[in-house]
Design brief:
The complex is a heterodimer of chains A (420) and B (141). Chain A has 420 residues and is of the alpha/beta class. Chain A has two domains: 9-38 and 309-418, Aspartate Aminotransferase, domain 1 (Alpha-Beta Complex); 51-305, Aspartate Aminotransferase, domain 2 (3-Layer(aba) Sandwich), CATH 3.40.640. Chain A contains 15 helices and 15 strands. Chain A has a seven-stranded mixed sheet with strand order 2-8-7-6-5-3-4, with helices on both faces. In chain A, strands 11-12-15-14 form a four-stranded antiparallel sheet, with helices on one face. In chain A, helix 4 packs across helix 11, helix 12 (309-327) runs parallel beside helix 15 (400-419) and helix 13 crosses helix 15. A three-stranded antiparallel sheet of chain B has the order 1-2-3. The radius of gyration of chain B is 15 Å and the shape is globular. Classes of the chains: A alpha/beta (420), B alpha+beta (141).
């Protein structure tokens, strides 16, 4: 799909109108200069609708779920399960039971690596990862490889920061059991061609796990059309609360996998001799789940659906194009990753003579929040030959004016360090 | 350069140490050395010391790459420790390092500032294999 063409066709959204819903974006909500929040890749802000939905539960409906016979427990269980249904429709899963609530993308990927990995990986089996993965989609597989004797192989990148699909095809082989890949790079912003990756992965007889932390909040996701076997995302990167995430997996896979964490809720029966696991999805939800967080995520999804994912994606692409145009004029500044048409709303860069930490510190004085560091992608930074980078990441409430302020502030910081 | 109140992290003496560091490079007669990084940001500092038989630091050099704070702090530390006895340096605490740096730092930037301090504390216990026995004995005394 040509992202530019789809952007042109998508309806526009009005970020200034949406900003009114976000208490933290109002003037005076936080000390210092007016906030320009460009750290959405790390975590987003929450609209009043999400905060209110959560407060409403605590004030009127809260009790533990799947336990009590009393009215509140039944009411809260109903809200919790409604949230699951909302997630199911949002990513177009075939069944509600294919949606497992976790604490976040990291836990979701660990669940797959531990539960699926330990019974399916044998010595010499291959797991394909890519050089642009977040640590959350690297370390669980390194742990699984260490436990099972499986081997990790790395899909390289092209010079402009896209996956090298020719090398990917070569690396896929009879020993490949699983391909684990980010839908969108959290550093380069690269939108990976998942449909093609899924097609080749399945043709090779392997499974596809998608780290969708940076894509589900920003563009339409259809797990069935995509052909994802596993897909993970986080609530706090999509206007929802922290401590709630999602694992989607096909029912047949979940049925065959052993439970991950053991405890209450995930059992059907416990005896002195052992236990029988519960049916899906409880089988993978041990202990008291993040109840109100799940309901908050449901409210966030309702908000996102009302704005429209196509409009959000198109809006972010405009911001990315603007950032490329303005930052590209700053001498000594190099934008990482491909041209805007291959990217989501993430623009990372390095500036000669201006360390990312110093850049972020000087931007912060102008009220601009960005991220500086390796963004939990150390192998990628090593590949790029840089210790760290500065990242601006956009969302539906960001404006073209904020992008201009970012560029002006970076230019001033650069001039300041250069002058001496 | 005129600096306003909010600019105080990048005070003139900090930028001066960053732009024109004290003893950036290699110590010609190094007896002790250590290198470490701050994996969070990739800042890297190596410190090389020449410690004489009496335990005095004759010269101190640093090298590395990273943000203004980490590099300026390493420069200040090298300047500060020349002429000191290693026993004195071992007692040089993190709060003293932050005081030496001068400019106020948030907890995250304190890590940048303290990288060189961590490295020199390790360097004091890291005699180079090629250095004289006496120096290493002094260092571990």
């Amino acid at each position: 799909m040509n992202a530019l063409r789809s952007a042109a066709a998508a309806p526009l959204l009005d970020p200034l109108a949406l900003r009114a819903d976000f208490p933290i974006l109002q003037p005076g909500a936080s000390p210092g200069p007016e906030l320009v929040f460009l750290d959405n890749g790390a975590s987003t802000q929450r609209p009043r609708q999400v905060l209110d939905a959560m407060t409403r539960v605590y004030e009127h409906s809260y009790a533990n779920v799947h336990r009590g016979i009393h009215r509140l427990s039944e009411e809260c269980t109903e809200l919790y399960e409604q949230a699951r249904g909302r997630v199911q429709r949002f990513v177009n899963a075939a069944e509600r039971e294919e949606i497992i609530f976790t604490r976040g993308t990291t836990e979701s990927l660990n669940l797959v690596a531990r539960s699926w990995g330990e019974v399916n990986l044998r010595p010499g089996d291959e797991i394909l990862l890519t050089l642009l993965e977040h640590h959350a989609n690297i370390v669980p597989w390194q742990q699984a490889a260490a436990r099972t004797g499986a081997v990790i192989r790395w899909v390289p990148l092209t010079d402009d920061g896209r996956l090298d699909l020719a090398k990917f095809s070569e690396l896929l082989g009879p020993r490949t059991r699983l391909v684990a890949v980010a839908a969108i790079s959290n550093v380069l912003g690269t939108v990976n061609p998942l449909v093609e990756i899924a097609r080749q992965t399945h043709a090779a007889g392997a499974l596809l796990a998608v780290d969708a932390a940076q894509s589900v909040p920003h563009m339409l996701t259809d797990v069935q059309e995509l052909g994802a076997d596993f897909l993970a995302c986080s609530g706090h990167k999509m206007l929802g609360p922290t401590g709630i995430g999602v694992l989607y997996a096909r029912r047949a896979l979940l049925e065959a996998m052993p439970p991950f964490l053991g405890g209450g809720s995930m059992i059907r029966r416990v005896t002195l001799e052992g236990f029988e696991p519960a049916e899906l999805p409880s089988k993978f939800e041990a202990g008291t789940p993040p109840i109100v967080e799940a309901i908050g995520l449901g409210a966030a999804i309702e908000y996102l659906e009302r704005v429209g994912l196509a409009a959000i994606h198109a809006h972010e692409l405009r911001l990315t194009q603007e950032a490329h145009a303005l930052l590209g004029q700053i001498e000594g500044l190099r934008i990482l990753g491909p041209a805007p048409e291959h990217k989501g709303g993430i623009v990372s860069f390095v500036v000669d003579g201006l360390h990312p930490h110093d850049a972020a510190q000087l931007l912060d004085r102008d009220g601009i929040a960005v991220r500086a560091g390796h963004h939990c992608a150390m192998p990628l930074h090593q590949h790029l030959g840089i210790p760290a980078s500065t990242r601006a990441s956009f969302y539906l409430y960001n404006t073209l004016d904020e992008v201009a302020r970012l560029a002006a502030s970076i230019a001033a910081a650069r001039a300041r360090f250069k002058r001496r | 350069m005129r600096l306003d109140d909010r600019d105080d992290i990048y005070q003139d003496h900090v930028l001066a140490h960053y732009e024109e560091p004290f003893h950036r490079g290699h110590c010609p007669r190094a007896t002790h050395a250590h290198e470490d990084d701050n994996p969070l940001c990739g800042d890297r500092v190596r410190i090389e010391l020449e410690v004489d038989d009496a335990g005095q630091v004759q010269s101190a050099y640093f090298d590395g790459q990273g943000c203004c704070i980490s590099q300026a702090a390493a420069s200040m530390l090298c300047e500060r420790c020349e002429g000191c006895h290693i026993d004195e340096l071992r007692k040089f605490t993190a709060p003293e390092m932050l005081k030496l740096f001068g400019a106020p730092l948030t907890p995250n930037r304190q890590k940048c500032c303290l990288l060189g301090w961590r490295v020199i504390q390790s360097a004091l216990f890291s005699p180079l294999a090629a250095s004289s026995e006496s120096a290493s004995e002094q260092a571990s005394a």
